[in-house]
């Protein structure tokens, strides 16, 4: 199991896919390829759960702290964390599956409130 899969288990990833906004369409030419959402989400969860600063994000994630912070802000403004929390509370049959995810989402919402 990779670090991404540990920080963003399949059940958490499936919920995230239900609420994440569509990727913006990029203008032709220039720029870099956008990093994958799951890798960026794992980096964000790592920063939030360890309370490290964005610039100290380990390079093993393959995502810069700047990219992770930018996407965190984008998703915070889209209210992704509140929607995720709502989904985890909605289905009592999956409560055991999403317990860790609830902790992560709570931390994400708290950090997003500080940013706003």
Explained architecture:
- With 116 residues, this protein is mainly α.
- It has one domain (3-18, 35-115).
- It is built from six helices and no strands.
- Helix 3 (37-50) packs across helix 4, helix 4 crosses helix 6 (95-115) and helix 5 runs antiparallel to helix 6 (95-115).
- The model has no long low-confidence stretch (mean pLDDT 81).
- InterPro entries: IS402-like_dom, Transposase_6_like.
- Residues 9-84 form the Insertion element IS402-like domain.
- This is Putative transposase of IS4/5 family.
Q: What integer is the average pLDDT?
A: 81
Topology pattern, helix = H, strand = E: HHHHHH
Proportion of strand residues:
under 5%
* Total of DSSP H or I helical runs spanning 4+ residues: 6
Would you tell me the structural class of the helices and strands?
Answer: mainly alpha
C-alpha geometry: globular
Number of domains: 1
Could you name the ranges where pLDDT drops below 50 across 5 or more consecutive residues? none
Which bin fits the share of residues in helices? 55-70%
Terminal Cα separation, in Å? 34 Å
Whole-angstrom Rg: 14 Å
The count of β-strands is 0
Q: Biggest sheet: strands, sense, closure?
A: none
Question: In short, what is this structure?
Answer:
The chain has 116 residues and is mostly helical. The protein has one domain.
Give descriptors for this structure.
Putative transposase of IS4/5 family, single chain, mainly alpha, 6 helices, Transposase_6_like, IS402-like_dom
